[in-house]
Write a structure and sequence with these properties.
The chain is of the alpha/beta class. It contains 26 helices and 23 strands. A 5-stranded mixed sheet has the order 7-6-5-8-9. One of its GO terms (molecular function) is nucleic acid binding. One of its GO terms (biological process) is DNA integration.
Length: 724
Amino acid sequence: MPAPRTEKEIRGFLGRLQYISRFIARLADICEPIFHLLRKNQPTVWSDDCQRAFERIKECLLSPSVLVPPTPGRPLLLYLSVSDMALGCMLAQLDDLGKKRAIYYLSKRMLEYECKYIMIERLCLALVWATRRLRHYMTEYSVLLVSRLDPLSITGWRLYFDGTANQSGFGIGILLISPQGDHIPRSVRLAFFDHHRLTNNIVEYEACITGLETALDLGIRQLEIHGDSNLVIQQTQGIWRTRDEKLKPYHAYLALLIDGFDVLRYIHLPRVENQFVNALATLASMIVIPVGVTVRPLLIETRSVPAYYCLIGEIEDQIGLPWYHDIYQFLSYGTYLELTSAKDRRALRQLASRFVICGDALYRRSLDGLLLLCLDRTSADRVMREVYAGVCGPHMGGHMLACKIMRAGYFWLTMKTDCCQFVQRCQECQMHGDLIHVPCSELHALTSPWPFSAWGVDIIGKISPKSSSGYDYILVAIDYFTEWVEAASYARLTAARVAKFIRSHIICRYGVPHELISDRGEYGIQHHRSSAYRPQTNGAVEAANKNIKRILRKMVETSWDWSEKLPFALGAYRTSFRTSTRATPYSLVYGMEAVLPVEIKMGSLRVALEQHVSEAKWVQSRYDQLSLLGEKRLRATDHAQAYQRKMTRAFRKKVRPRKFQRGDLVLKVLRGLISDPRGKFRPSWSGPYVIRDLTREGAAWLTNLDGNQFTKPINVDQLKKFYA
């Protein structure tokens, strides 16, 4: 069989191999050099690697593996194979002689983003992929997973590096993370910039080299390198050539360091995911370290409760004594703790002056003269549960709960904090809590550089009652520059009708737009999806919908003729003055104001003057208006940008950020259209759910507690934290 040479022959060859892929082990790994020939802008040159892969495939075909059917009642063995570019697995079973017999081979070439996974993530990906492909075996047989991978090699050492160049100086930061999760930070200030001109790329190279030197000093030979400098990572891998003369010595020294490692893997990170080492680099660049002095890294901790609360909790938990033990001993016997200072004794005497002992119980005297029984932690928890959610428990707020317990005659030192945390963890209150209307993210205005380059599309409906023509939907599109609106009514909306609307009402009239904010893409238009369901994200279209509905509501004579009034509502909207642009959409599109019907009936000055103007002068004046249209649109752009800045400043004052992380428990808003047999007593939130993934744009992918994943992302504006 001759080797394929053209792209068509290569595609045909790989297509035929797909039919027998289950008989060849690690087929995707073997064909990797051939797959490279099908990349875009890649010349189809049959190299030696391709020829060796072709010869290996011929050997597999000359001596094919013999697959056997599985024997019922015996367990199956699943072997996984993971490489840098492909996944593979073999399903086998032991025969009567104890020999392994192959049943099925699978192989898959990883996608571009999957190649960035670390080894443990690739292994999990291979396991999930193989389980789904071999589901018919998994449901009928017990399967044993066989893995020969060393856990330390799976979760190996990771290096994060970054460099900073600012007015204060130059600094680099590196972070080494061990397989056990230990963090080894290092921060270095570069002080040779006075005789050696430094650039940001040089500082990034310095950071990478320092990180590799530190790893070699620790005896590390397998390493994953994470950085936000695409130039350093691409040049180190040889994908980009080093043209800058100042970077060539760094690149040469980096190549020498790379030879000291057995395995190196490079991963490019966004800057927001590399903030820790960026903070280390910024810290080094902003401080001046004396010669001969070494500044150790700072210890960074997270504390979620006040210091005194931690102290009280530790004492009560470890010693088993209530918080008022010292006060009780002092009032009963007049004794102090051993090794206490005079200051501590004076503080104890002052604190005990408001407590009295009646019988065996300790009471605190309140300001109105009532005696409050002092409770330990166990009794306090019981009282909070009974008062908050007991027979007559109203599920009040934390402050009110503390006041009600005090009015009932009980006291402990951390009442308010404990009550607030107790209320915060109440599941019923979280599920039935009020919806959060305060925005959690800043306002990001959508702008358009020229007319009809960016359109937004939205739907009004379902409208009840239907129009006399049977319509109950309105499809609305608005141009973000001129705020010109196009709309059409439909009895039933489908993807094909939306595409036809875009073709007839937008493309055929105003040309192909550069951007279209919608859910579907055609005609080579660049599409942007507004975030997971959140109407405020597509605010311009929502505002147009509101105005059109308001105009229609006042125009219709009966509730059935709204579709006949829709063209008049559009005309009223297009000729109305817009505050953001300080002009009408009609004037920004045509360069002149529209002639209204009232001007014809009443004979306005403009109409009267135009009746006495010759056709040639009218055409010349029209040319002048079109010539000045560019200036008018530019002035409208300035007004729109100033208006957006004003709205952004006002909106920013209302923002209260809600920070979420992967693995957080959250509740999701229940939409009003969801039918629920509980009616008025339906909760406002559903959950809890677990955040599986989170994007910087504010979308979250959720899973329930059973592990089932949501198919669509949820905007973080629709979530709130759940306190267990």
